[in-house]
Amino acid sequence: MGTFRIIKGDITKCRADAIVNAANPSLLGGGGVDGAIHRAAGPELLEECRTLNGCRPGEAKITKGYRLPADYVIHTPGPVYRGGNCGEEQILASCYRNSLKLAACYERNTVAFPSISTGIYGYPVSLAAKTAVREILTFLHTQSTVREVVMVCFDEETKKAYEAAYREIGQAEFVIRKAGEADLADIQKLMETTVAYMENPDWFYEDGKEFLETCVKEEENAGFAVIARTKQEGIPAGCFLVEIPGDVPYNLGNDLGFSKEQLLLSAHMDTAAVAPLYRGHHLQDRMMEVCEEEMKKRGMRYLLATVHPDNPYSLSNVQKRGYGIRATKEKYGRSLRHILCKEI
Ligand code: ADP
């Protein structure tokens, strides 16, 4: 993962590959950081901006940096704060996400941001900081082109707000517990987000909605699910599913030549999703541990898992927990999967 820094300073002096401008939708300059960037870049910047036909809030457009130390300027109009119920958070999140995507597209390695919308646009800085830090860290966790993001705060109060938001995410504590029907929508969303940010979606086998439902309802003892949420705000951070297939053809034990008795004592440690923001907290491992304990209580003997051979992250996580590769086969009508097993 790339690095994230928070500093106090003037963004117009920043030697980043690209600096971001908290622009207004006309892109023709304004007050605050926008005015400072235009003054420092010189009139050529305004000339190039005139050719861009403006920019909607949440979107981003790029120009050269002219007399600035930075090579490029990414212009993104933030939302005007109108109390928080007018989609401000989504627009602000899009500003960070779209600016970073544009930087990656132009193969820029270092990007500097000002605190978007917290000046003239009136967004409370403690709220804006949470959204900004969440989007920046998620982005840094999921790609490798942009390697450093610097948050350039113009004053001490702004810097403190961003530092607090960063601490809150980095030191988040989690509660892992059995999931119920009330968690279904959150689990589905977690899986969708995880797949959307995946390096190779083929690594992930998305179970059908029906299977998820049986897990959270624990119908006919068919399955089991846990969800990890942050302790303070209850934000869904990860989920893990276990299937107890019984004596059916798709039981992975069949691939390993298990007897009927062994099949009935097998559980599939199946699908895990960890929100990109909370990677690095060993959540997959911690959720698996909780699930394994539960399987032990239910008298299961064989814990089985499948992992795509090209997915080194999951493979090393699962192997570290004592699962060994017993076979490698085409599964789910798709490409190869290792079938791993742990006896408890
Ligand atoms: P917005 O219209 O998006 O609210 P502003 O420019 O009014 O944008 O303010 C955004 C933030 O940028 C504020 O925290 C302001 O203090 C800060 N700011 C102003 N000038 C600079 C600068 N030269 N470098 C970094 N930040 C700046």
Fraction of helical residues:
25-40%
**Each distinct ligand:** adenosine-5'-diphosphate
**Highest-level CATH class of the largest domain:** Alpha Beta
Q: State the helix count.
A: 11
- What value does the Rg take, in angstroms? 24 Å
Keywords:
seven-stranded mixed sheet; Leucine Aminopeptidase, subunit E, domain 1; binds adenosine-5'-diphosphate; alpha/beta; six-stranded mixed sheet; 11 helices; elongated
Overview of this structure, please?
The protein has 344 residues and is an alpha/beta fold. It folds into two domains: 3-170, Leucine Aminopeptidase, subunit E, domain 1; 174-343, Gcn5-related N-acetyltransferase (GNAT) (Aminopeptidase). 36% of the residues lie in helices and 24% in strands. It is built from eleven helices and 13 strands. A seven-stranded mixed sheet has the order 7-8-9-10-11-13-12, with helices on both faces. A six-stranded mixed sheet has the order 1-6-5-2-4-3, sandwiched between helices. Helix 4 (125-142) packs across helix 5. The longest helix has 18 residues, at 88-105. The radius of gyration is 24 Å and the shape is elongated. The two termini are 35 Å apart. The mean pLDDT is 92. The structure holds adenosine-5'-diphosphate. Residues 10-12, 22, 32-34, 36, 78, 114-121, 152, 154-155, 158 line the site of adenosine-5'-diphosphate.
